[in-house]
């Protein structure tokens, strides 16, 4: 896991397949939260830091299959039998809704000052344009499907579908570097299809084999209820907040917030109990590869993901509620 803040160079990748030893909290029930020794975490999760952020397999033959615009599923057949993301077609299409400067939701998010912001509305190709750092796009990797129905009301921008094997790699996002107890907010709209015993990462960034970093993921403990968890790893210690998972097959606005002292999780503009959880882990620090949707061996995020924004600050309840209100209902929660 890592400590927040943008500085230096960061590798950010959202959704990459096969990982090895990963990190996760040892117990993930909907009511459990707190700080534990990272050494006790469940080893079945696969090492996201070691493998998830790696570059695409150079052994790919470079071919890809592209579906119609309404169902643009991408993948390359590699020698090892895996599928790799399309490497062609930059996203700067004239009619690309991702670049719709007239979107009220986009304007509101940019007003809040994100480090990076990916609308995920590309019509083709394998690059996710950053609305903040246009010269530092993220890369779609493995299996991904473009042009899915988006989360934002009255906005033509589309969303991205993943099937557990895809990833958004933010390697080029130099802003995503954090030190000490710097704050961070991870904001995203998710529509999960599968929540099971696997650790289905929505966002993860970590270094040192998982000893430092952050993770936001879905998980259903054996015999337990589906949960959404936000973790901070620091110097081998782990602080976790768990809340009930978002409902399947419907978009939920999620904000995972760390203010330097506590972790909080918001769903649809509301702070969910048992948030906040005091952070008693070490200061730590992280400047590792950031990625969305990736998990170990096909158990990454499975569903539709939209409007990912990462901030080097703790968004306020009012900001979070306004982002949800405008996206969901077309109105600001505070009436502004």
- By helix and strand content, what is the structural category? mainly beta
Largest sheet: 10 strands, antiparallel
Order of helices and strands: EEHEEEHEEEEEEEEEEEEEEEEEEEH
- List low-confidence stretches: 1-32, 35-71, 75-98
Question: In one word, what is the shape?
Answer: globular
CATH architecture: Sandwich
The amount of beta strand, in percent, is: 25-35%
Distance between the termini: 37 Å
Count of DSSP strands = 24
How many helices?
3
CATH topology: Jelly Rolls
Number of domains: 1
- Provide the residue-averaged pLDDT: 73
Query: What's the CATH C level?
Result: Mainly Beta
Radius of gyration from CA coordinates? 18 Å
Question: How much helix is in the residues?
Answer: under 10%
Describe this structure in words.
It is a single chain. The protein is mainly β and 336 residues long. The chain has a single domain, classed as Jelly Rolls (Sandwich), CATH 2.60.120.200. Helix content is 8%, strand content 33%. It is built from three helices and 24 strands. Strands 1, 2, 7, 8, 11, 14, 15, 16, 17 and 23 form a ten-stranded antiparallel sheet that branches. Strands 3, 6, 9, 10, 13, 18, 19, 20, 21 and 24 form a ten-stranded antiparallel sheet that branches. A two-stranded antiparallel sheet has the order 4-5. The chain is globular, with a radius of gyration of 18 Å. It starts with 12 loop residues before the first strand and ends in a 7-residue tail after the last helix. 59% of the residues are buried. The N terminus is likely disordered.
